[in-house]
Write a structure and sequence with these properties.
Layout (H helix, E strand, L loop, with lengths): L2 H9 L6 H15 L5 E4 L4 H7 L3 H13 L8 E3 L11 H8 L3 E3 L8 E9 L3 H12 L4 E9 L2
Parallel strand pairs: 1-4, 4-5
Antiparallel strand pairs: 2-3
Length: about 150
């Protein structure tokens, strides 16, 4: 799936798309035989979430969680600062943009297997920054799972 498919969920307020997209993630989960103790969505900065009305990654994580019976820590990861929109940046600038921008405040991740959920993956910079924060909080392992990739 390409990021164009996610555009209506992310920018056109079609939050209901999270349900069929969550079903797609669950099908992949089962086919890939994934396992986790926690799902943690990539957080938006509070101002961006307020503007959008929801966090699309959190909606995806919740939809997936209902299907695979893994709990979601919706606020377990937080942005420590606002960041620029990633899609306007090259790979090096993306890594720089999100470096140190996340903090894991979910204490239940200690010694747990965590999967960080995001809507779109491009360079992996956001997932990597989130994974570093989750590992710093004591997780045993961290994987990233995205609904779509950019071309």
């Amino acid at each position: 799936m390409t990021w164009y498919s996610v555009h209506p969920l992310k920018y056109e307020r079609l939050s209901g798309l999270a349900e069929p997209f969550g079903e797609m993630l669950a099908a992949y989960w089962c086919a890939a035989q994934l396992a986790a103790d926690w799902l943690i969505p990539v957080p938006l900065h509070p101002s961006r979430e307020r503007d959008r009305g929801y966090n699309q990654s959190e909606l995806l994580a919740c939809s997936l969680a209902r299907r695979v019976d893994v709990p979601v820590s919706g606020k377990g990861l937080r942005r420590t600062r606002a960041t620029a929109v990633q899609m306007t940046l090259n790979a090096a600038k993306r890594r720089e943009n999100v470096a140190g921008a996340f903090e894991c405040i979910e204490v239940r991740v200690r010694n747990a297997r965590v999967i960080v959920i995001d809507d779109v993956g491009t360079t992996g910079a956001t997932l990597e920054a989130c994974a570093q924060a989750v590992l710093k909080a004591g997780a045993a392992s961290v994987m990233g799972l995205t609904l779509a990739r950019t071309p």
